[in-house]
Amino acid sequence: MKSPFSLFSPLRILALPPVLAAAFLSPDPALALTCRSAADCYNQGLAADGAMRYREAGAFYSQGCAGNNALACTNLGFLFQQGKGVGEDLGKAAAYYQKGCQLGNAVGCVNLGLMYETGSGVKRSYRDAAGSYSRGCDLQNGNSCTNYGVLAEKGLGLRADPAVAAASYGLGCNLGNVTGCKNAGIIYLHGRGVPQDNQRARSFFVRGCAMKNGDCCSNLGYMYEKGLLKDKDLKAAWKYYHQGCSLGSDVGCRNLARLGTEKPKSSQGPLQELDLDDY
């Protein structure tokens, strides 16, 4: 599933910034390694990485990235970010993430977006973060879609647009990002810049709960106890509060304690003050 590009800003950083342009150097020119192709360099780097031979992995990834292997570039960026086998260098990490992203690796895009969003190794730029997340979302990375939605909802780096945020959260959810499910559910539950829709909110919370997100389960309980789906249903509310609490949701545990540790015998009961997990 490809995201509708009209929703997203294009990746603006297609040319390497001058500060990062010198980063594409072998981390260890003295380490002589041979590989048949860029893909082979990546595979040998991955094997060395898994065996914690990070210096060797970095050299293989460097050669693979020089041959335009996107995975090699992204993995080399991670080594520079973590300082494994190479000296920690956040500027080089950003450069390699950027090249990986440009070559089509979605993880490189989301990692670069996070660095721009937080100002880690590069000058903070919400606009460039949005561009990186946009590219990652087009590459079907759920984290990128959700992160783009957060920027769109808050108006960071682009015009605030709750409808775009809701669409981005929905894409993130569909691509397996549980925060996207929760955020989309909350937007529709409250009608924040989009038509209020309890059924759509429920569908996102159901997906998130199925992914074992306790807050989504707890919010389903809230909807059933509040009677937002049809009639008030304390049995269903208790079930979802219990599930949410067991998955670590404080809201689920508080609401479960209020209803009692035993499942209600009746679906009806006096409406009490409820907790909802919001953001």
Question: What would your notes on this structure say?
Answer:
The chain is an all-alpha fold and 279 residues long. Helices cover 61% and strands 0% of the residues. Mean pLDDT is 85; it is low at 1-24 and 268-274.
Features:
279 residues, 61% helix
Gross morphology is elongated
Structural class, please? mainly alpha
Rounded mean pLDDT score: 85
Cα-to-Cα separation, first versus last residue: 28 Å
Order of helices and strands: HHHHHHHHHHHHHH
Oligomeric composition of the shown chains:
single chain
Low-confidence stretches: 1-24, 268-274
SS element count, helices? 14
Helix content: 55-70%
Helix and strand topology:
Blueprint: H1 18-21, H2 38-50, H3 54-66, H4 70-82, H5 90-102, H6 106-118, H7 126-138, H8 142-154, H9 162-174, H10 178-190, H11 198-210, H12 214-226, H13 234-246, H14 250-259
Concise structural overview:
The protein is mostly helical.
